[in-house]
What does this fold into?
Amino acid sequence: MTISRQEVLHIARLARLGLAEAEVERLREQLSAILEHFAALAAVDTEGVPPTAQSIELQSIMAPDKVQPSLPQDDILANAPRRQEDCFRVKAVLE
Amino acid sequence: MKPRELVGLTAHQAARLLARREVSAVELTRAVLERIGAVDGKVRAFVTATPDLALEQARLADERLQAGERGPLLGVPAAIKDVICTKGVRTTCSSRMLEGFVPPYDAHVMNRLYQAGLVMVGKTNLDEFAMGSSTENSAFFPTHNPWDVTRVPGGSSGGSAAAVAADECLYALGSDTGGSIRQPAGFCSIVGLKPTYGRVSRYGLVAFASSLDQIGPMAKDVTDCALVLGAISGHDPRDSTSAPNPVPDYTRALVPDLRGLRLGVPREYYAEGMQPEVRQAMEMALTKLQELGATIDREVSLPSTPHALAVYYILAPSEASANLARYDGVKYGFSAPGETMWEAMEHTKQFGFGPEVKRRIMLGTYALSAGYYDAYYLKAQKVRTLIRREFDQVFERCDALVTPTSPTVPFRLGEKAESPLQMYLSDIYTIPVNIAGLPGLTVPAGFVEGLPVGLQLIGKPFSEETLLRVGYAYEQATAWHKRKPSL
It folds into this structure.
């Protein structure tokens, strides 16, 4: 299993992960080796076996529809890298 | 009692002295802070020490004790893995991304431990975002194994494990996604428990792989482990995967007698890759367990075991790639400049995350991407079902399984840093437990040329009492847990 430089760049873009040039090649090699090791999984017979998303039996846990106080706005905004009044400041989303 | 003796106590021993007012929580805390000052330069277990907060909490605990309140953890100094949110105390996940992040709320386990009288002495080092098996992936510095400072303490909860082993706290909390409590506990010769998935609320635990993560105790003996587990377990409506099962008094399970118990030795775990000295230690442990009354069943098989590593390294990075998408430089954490919003986001992740985190984001994004989803993610989820079913079948004939915690003794710092796959293989015995959502307990099981070996006990869901009983009986019949590293 070898993945190409193009695939590395495509995946990085999906993840919105910036990579330096040296990282692209290193990740290409490492991911290829790791995926190679995982190829054996394809041979496991899973005909008719349902997938498990998580290991507990609980399903559709409901919370009471009750108004509860949230954390104070200032506490939340205290960690914001950029703040303007009571908002997170971001670059323009639409150009 | 001298400060050096005080810090060597277990939590339950210290609680007895505190209850009799033979020592105050402030004195005990001062002794622990002194110990941190004396040895942490060598061990480097702590990302953030909180001495002022600890003394304030100790004074509060003394007031509660003075007022007649008693409790096994009241006034006992402990350390918290820096992936658990602590209100007002920075929580870094050992990542540049969260270097300055101060949580506005406490994790559920912190609420519970404060009720129980926690004195928090600091936040411990980990592999960045709990991704790793040696604590070398910390963005700040590696932690050293107190038994041999040229070796790793294991990971990802390496800081917590080293702090307990070095008497820099009386107990600690860790988190375990694929072995991150048990492997470092084994490497540092302490007791560590990964509870059943859902036993302990994940509210306030920074998410790595949500279907696998659990918080658990790391302690100097099984009794402390049972006490801390009791304190942090129970239903929490803020975690929708939190189990409603009642919490028993785990200390009642601590009886030094294993008659009537059937312990399985899964043959796939004793295959190639296990260091011969580790195998010898396991054989000695099995003999001991038999002497204590247990029946040893060597006809146990978990055939899908060889696939567990691949399943884990597809599922965990997939979940991680979704969970870590939140670090976009907008709401909290590190934020890098860029010409556009997208560029700023890409730079934030590029300079905020270290190599292992990037590798896992890439691996997970790949496994979830169009064209590969069925072959990787869905396939891994189906094999996950097979692994669970095999455990279910085995637990029809056995009460618990006995395996080593790791295939080898602690390796050297730097030894596996260049080979991600070699590092992943060090979790081979712990990973299946998370995949199936089972409880797993590690207890000290001897030494190979001065380096610790851990014994892992695996049980069916919510059988923590059985594991603690086996661990306790074994511990009382051996003396491994009483050995201390010389620092």
